[in-house]
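[Discussion] Sanity-checking designs against the backbone

I'm trying to build intuition for which residues belong where. Below is a structure token string of 117 positions. I'd appreciate it if someone posts a full sequence so I can compare it with mine line by line.
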């Protein structure tokens, strides 16, 4: 719970760093903030629960030096959307919802942009 609190408090700084990295006006701002929050929440869920990671058969990528932390979160979601959505469906008790088709496409586009940088 403490790490979640720290994470939420640090989100504006994380987002600012991410926007500076990818370009502030490349993607619609509100949708991007929402997507980054979803990516962060799912990443934290699996980071804090090794059992969940094993159940979903996902593994978190390492942080890349010189890249904002949120780039790792986006990469993780882009690489594991189907597994995450299956996990979300099988575990309705968790406080996270499956990623929509529109969000899935957005995260893939965002990840492609990050890889091109």
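Best answer:
Here's mine. Compare freely.
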């Amino acid at each position: 719970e403490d790490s979640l609190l720290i994470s939420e408090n640090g989100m504006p700084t994380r987002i600012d760093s991410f926007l500076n990295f990818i370009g502030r006006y490349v993607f619609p701002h509100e949708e991007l903030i929402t997507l980054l929050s979803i990516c962060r929440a799912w990443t934290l869920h699996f980071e804090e629960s090794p059992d969940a990671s094993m159940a979903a058969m996902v593994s978190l990528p390492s942080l890349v030096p010189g890249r904002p932390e949120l780039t790792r979160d986006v990469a993780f979601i882009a690489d594991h959307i189907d597994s995450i959505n299956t996990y979300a469906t099988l575990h309705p008790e968790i406080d996270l919802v499956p990623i929509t088709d529109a969000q899935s496409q957005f995260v893939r586009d965002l990840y492609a942009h990050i890889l091109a940088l």
